[in-house]
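Good morning,

Attaching, inline, the backbone tokens for the sequence recovery test we're adding to the shared suite. The designed sequence is right after.
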């Protein structure tokens, strides 16, 4: 059985609204994220899957529950320690790829290495990452010269560049056609094998569920049996 890199136990997230109202977005959610594997969090819009991913990625804090990363208590960490955790150990790929438009493909990935304080050979690492996502020939292109699928692959290369332990991908295939979406998921699976990185991906596409090594369906803020 694979070792769990993240363990979330009975996570609740309640958002307080004006007028004393509140929304209970996550209700006693427990998930185990296995190391060096692809875990898929599937659910319709508004199900709570993005909120859960934000909590797993230390971008948000639960209202109650327990959360550990490699046996470290994330909830008990200071904001400074959480920021360091995200910078050194986590990577993020969002539906909106958020590439810097005035930077080339190479520069976008290299900039991420500089932000993380990467100590290795940055040029070699950038070229390796772009080769892994099939964009070695696009290093000098600007983001606007790429297709949507290519831009997403640059975002993946940027996310893996600093060798994080885990990458969180929030609806990375939502704006892509079916074949391109499958290609992106296959890149994730190959990177699990080649780099040993852990992926957590949210999706509302039921056809992608079987691609994961582990999968959870979230409906109405709860894990569906």
């Amino acid at each position: 059985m694979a070792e769990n890199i993240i363990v979330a136990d009975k996570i609740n997230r309640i958002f307080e609204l004006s007028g004393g109202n509140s929304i209970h977005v996550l209700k006693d959610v427990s998930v185990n994220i296995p190391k060096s594997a692809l875990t898929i969090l599937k659910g319709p819009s508004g199900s709570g899957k993005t909120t859960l991913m934000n909590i797993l990625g230390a971008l948000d804090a639960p209202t109650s529950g327990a959360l550990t990363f490699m046996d470290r208590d994330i909830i008990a960490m200071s904001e400074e320690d959480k920021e360091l955790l995200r910078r050194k150990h986590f990577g993020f790929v969002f539906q909106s790829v958020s590439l810097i438009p005035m930077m080339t493909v190479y520069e976008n990935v290299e900039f991420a290495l500089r932000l993380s304080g990467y100590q290795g050979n940055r040029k070699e690492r950038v070229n390796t990452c772009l080769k892994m996502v099939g964009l070695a020939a696009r290093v000098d292109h600007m983001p606007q010269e790429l297709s949507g699928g290519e831009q997403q692959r640059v975002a993946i290369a940027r996310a893996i560049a600093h060798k994080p332990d885990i990458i969180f991908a929030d609806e990375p295939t939502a704006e892509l056609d079916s074949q391109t979406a499958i290609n992106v998921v296959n890149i994730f699976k190959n990177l699990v094998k080649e780099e040993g990185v852990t992926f957590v991906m949210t999706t509302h596409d039921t056809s992608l569920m079987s691609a994961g090594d582990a999968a959870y369906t979230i409906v109405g803020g709860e894990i569906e049996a």
